[in-house]
Design a protein that fits this description.
Largest sheet: none
Shape: rod-shaped
Helix content: over 70%
Radius of gyration: 28 Å
Number of helices: 3
Strand content: under 5%
Number of strands: 0
Structural class: mainly alpha
Distance between the termini: 20 Å
Length: about 120
């Protein structure tokens, strides 16, 4: 009788353990998918935003308010615009990485809590 009861309890514990593993795996996969979708939305939003035009940086603050278009000037200003875009993208990537690290720490804490609870059984 005792062995039958232990087998039933053991079976329930294994089922509970398998269910917990499946649920945690599903949570991790859904969070990764959500993160990828958020990244896509962020990229799309940044593509839609209009930056200042190239000619706004070429304006000279003097009395005549004339613009002089030299190829060197245009190239340097174009390079500055590209650099600003790259800096914005790096800031977004860094923020997303920090979020990911925070989420991983949170998941690790949850896993440890679940393991401690499972050790009681």
């Amino acid at each position: 009788m005792k062995s039958v009861v232990e087998e039933v309890i053991d079976l329930k514990a294994r089922r509970l353990n398998n269910t917990m593993k499946k649920l945690t795996t599903d949570v991790v996969l859904l969070k990764a998918e959500n993160e990828n979708l958020q990244w896509t939305v962020c990229i799309k939003k940044s593509c839609r935003q209009r930056d200042k035009s190239l000619f706004d940086d070429l304006k000279i603050n003097d009395e005549t308010k004339k613009m002089f278009f030299s190829s060197n000037k245009i190239q340097t200003i174009h390079d500055h615009q590209i650099q600003r875009i790259k800096e914005k993208q790096q800031a977004v990537i860094q923020k997303m990485n920090e979020k990911k690290q925070k989420e991983l720490r949170k998941l690790e804490k949850q896993r440890l809590i679940i393991e401690r609870k499972m050790s009681w059984f």
